DNA sequence: GCAGATTAGGTTATAATGTTGCAATTCTAC
DNA sequence: GTAGAATTGCAACATTATAACCTAATCTGC
């Protein structure tokens, strides 16, 4: 499992790692990590909370980037395609992927209080997909799992 | 597991059962299944495809019901609270619950081609939540799992 | 280098989904 | 029947996402 964000960690390292992996992945795939794309990635990684596309617009504007919705959505789509960020569909928000490059079904826990989110690996994830395929005769192409609740800190505070 | 919709079935019976269960549940909980609420439930159950809130508006209008967004969303919220319908968050759409009354984590398979959706039970669902709680020290209050892919018919056609 | 193809970004407008706030009505319990 | 609660009507608005069309930058093969 990826590092548990609810424990102390050096967050600058998270961002640096993410950008550096992104660069490698783009190189490998022969696509371009343009300034806008990189900046969007960094902003998504600014903390461990899923961020809405429209939250990014003013921050890009501040830095002199163009900031119309299509600009941000294009950058996000690019990053999604490469698996560098994930979309939290229940929040209409985006978050950095902690292990890009690996093709994996994603599972996120999101704290409804503080908004922090943690990506999880779980063997049971693929069991569910396989079960559905066996029982229904379907083909599963994409799997979304999102857990909502309270993180350790917010649980304690309540 | 609930009936597999990809096999032949009498769909009128699906709707009747749903409405009749809704009536019982409302009685039991001391809440009112008003005409609008019942009609929205029936429309959601019109087929096994998740339906958008805005798709319901014109149909309600045809029948002389008020049809502004809040009307539909209020009815849907009511039905969601009682567990009579579920929300497919990745589609911004709603679908009838096949076993209301039971408190259960929901898992849906949705065909990306024809749009039909099937609710699934899976023991692994709660395993995932329990794992997250154990590993992260969190409390899981809600769990969303959605599988996208191809149903038997659409798989065959492709 | 240069021409043409490809990719990325700029701009404007609009679509799709969901919410707030308040007034009017209807129901329920006493 | 009357007060309080629940429900509905209504208008405006907020949020999220995409379409369409064009310009600019970059790459590729020569």
From TrEMBL, chains A, B:
Claim: Transcription regulation is one of the keywords in the record: yes
Keywords, in A-Z order: Cytoplasm, DNA-binding, Iron, Metal-binding, Repressor, Transcription, Transcription regulation, Zinc
Family as reported in the entry's similarity comment: Belongs to the Fur family.
Major site of localization recorded for this protein: cytoplasm
Annotated PANTHER family: ZINC UPTAKE REGULATION PROTEIN (PTHR33202)
Official protein name in the record: Ferric uptake regulation protein
Cellular localization per UniProt: Cytoplasm
Keyword Repressor: yes
Subunit-level organization: Homodimer.
